[in-house]
Write a structure and sequence with these properties.
Length: 85
């Protein structure tokens, strides 16, 4: 049996791109068949955003985070103070 090189089995992209007829993908064929009898309705480019909830102040978030950091620092300092005695 004669050995065949891998180069004989390589896919030639130029040959495929130059094809006169290109078969649509399976998904494209499925959608075309579905839409033939029941075409989809119009869809806006971007959907309208839902109603915006109440906006919290960024200061509230900042104070909350800094308060937590200060609390942790104080807790660690207290634990260190208690362990040194």
């Amino acid at each position: 049996m004669a050995e065949q090189h891998d180069s004989e089995y390589e896919f030639d992209h130029r040959w495929a791109s130059a094809a006169e007829h290109k078969e649509p993908s399976a998904r494209a064929r499925m959608l075309a068949a579905r839409w033939k009898d029941n075409p989809p309705g119009p869809v806006p480019f971007r959907a309208d955003p839902g109603p915006a909830g109440p906006r919290r102040s960024s200061w509230l978030s900042t104070v909350l985070v800094l308060g937590c950091v200060v609390g942790v620092i104080l807790l660690l300092g207290y634990a260190n103070l208690r362990s040194s005695y």
